[in-house]
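assembly run, all chains below
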Amino acid sequence: MSGAASGRGEAAMVPQVDFESYYGRQIIKTPTWKTPDVPLYLFLGGLAGASAVLAEGASLRDLPRLETVARGAAASGAGLGTVFLVHDLGRPERFLNMLRVFKPTSPLSVGSFILAPFSPLAIIAFGSKLTGWFPRLGRLAGVGAAAFGPALATYTAALLGNTVVPAWHEAHRELPFVFGGSGAQAAGGVAMLLVPIDQAGPARRLALMGAAVEIVAAESILRQRGLAAEPYETGRPGRLMRVARSATTLASVATVLGGRRSRVLSALAGATYVAASVTTRFGIFEAGLASARDPKYTVVPQRERLRQRQDASAKMTT
Amino acid sequence: MSLFSDIFSEGRLWGRLDDVTGDAGYDEHPPRMGFFTDTSVCIGCKACEVACKEWNEVPDDGYLLTGMSYDNTGALGASTWRHVAFVEKPFETVADRPPQGPPVTDLGMPGVGPPAREDTAAESGDGAMRWLMSSDVCKHCTHAGCLDVCPTGALFRTEFGTVVVQPDVCNGCGYCVAACPYGVIDLREGDGRAFKCTLCYDRLKEGQTPACAQACPTESIQFGEVSELRLRAANRLQELEDQGVDVARLYGADPDDGVGGDGAFFLLLDEPEVYGLPPDPVVPTRSLASVWKHVGYAAATVAGIGVASFLGRRRP
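ok done. output:
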């Protein structure tokens, strides 16, 4: 009954561990959240939240093309994200039950109360900007969306962190920065793709800084978390994480070298940023699923925790 | 930040909590009820599984053979609220057997391979098995991850201190599934909503015993007040130790463990993971304060780099 680990034909990052299990079956359930609904929602929430901040800055600095694109990204990200979120429910017709109670212990409840005001505010702000109707109301809505934006871009990390899924829970300190940085990178990327370079300066800087935050946070997951980091390095999620990191780095180099001069390079770098941000979310999502399916990730760290506690209490009694 | 510290403090989200029902808002309430499952007397008959299905009208979850043991149920799930784990653990040599462990008995059950000669099998130890059977169930945790994270309020704490899903409220978001350290609750395919053991909430309200405990022929499943069951479990452990059974241990009975103690706890004869139970389960919300704190820092970072993007020359 001793479970052999891995078996996916890849070099193990952590030495093989012996542990017991019930016929090798997983202990915790695999999250029922669907692919691509939930990883796409994670991406769109990050894009929308950071875009709302970018739009407000553009409005203050009088960069109308940037403002329109960023407001559009915020509105469509929130709208489309809500569609994916509702579609993921087992009973989509009951999505309004999300607003039945407010529970700070449930990141999904808190998130619903962030998304619920954000979406209409972002849509009003975009609609007003497009049509020119109710400019003051539109502006006010934009300020409101920008206020909720950073929370929308990062709360999804609490959603994953506050589970028993080993890869997500062990990374709960870093994931908010990965998601926030990845969201900023996506918001900057969309604007770089769609806005002329003379107005896209803030978008380039946002993407560059977001990418830096994201890469540092993702690297620190791999450096610090031992066995819990393994799902981020092996198998399909490992490949997704590596592709995302390479693409982010490539886009950043292109942005620094030619983002200000070449419209084509700016657009290519922007698109690469967006693609990398999507890939990151799929990588993190699937790493969590992989860590839930293998009892090793549940049993071994818990055994180690028990052993340390027993050692500590043995020391106290002697 | 007093609200913050009140919500995220020890006792509310983790650690010892003596009156879980009172904490949930019931001023006057019956005592906390639960199960003590003594696996040392479980015979693996699965009457509990059947009684649970029948009483609660839980649909079948497929007629599949697992091919791993006499356990064809596999695991707890949306349509399996009692699961009898069936562990066949061979002793490779006679010396391998714990000298004072539970006696190895040939039950005459069919096995794989040629039958061992009757007169020598028991002495040589060839093919000798320890059979471990355990009826698993929802633990009705003091600090229940599923209940903490449910965004709709479909999951609630009953007046008996148990944790129950309201099917008419659940919208199938699946957060509870990812928040249960024991892998108990799940979404039912084709239905979309989450289901799990209710500790027969309907029977409890009528003063009756839950169906599984009622059906158990060996009193392996004992139902009662949690405070009394904890005493009973401690006594049974002592009794077994006095008989020389040194492999017995209680699981989930400690109110200071990672979930504040289980409302349904166990006496096991091997490590928990051998039965498919997590060795040191912790409610995910124990880290909630840290989770929100880091989200806060990260949100501030996003706002900060947003502002920083507009600093500097106006038209670069």
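Chain B touches chain A through 78 residues (CB under 8 Å).

Residues 117-126 of chain B have pLDDT under 50 and may be disordered.

not gonna interpret more than that til we talk
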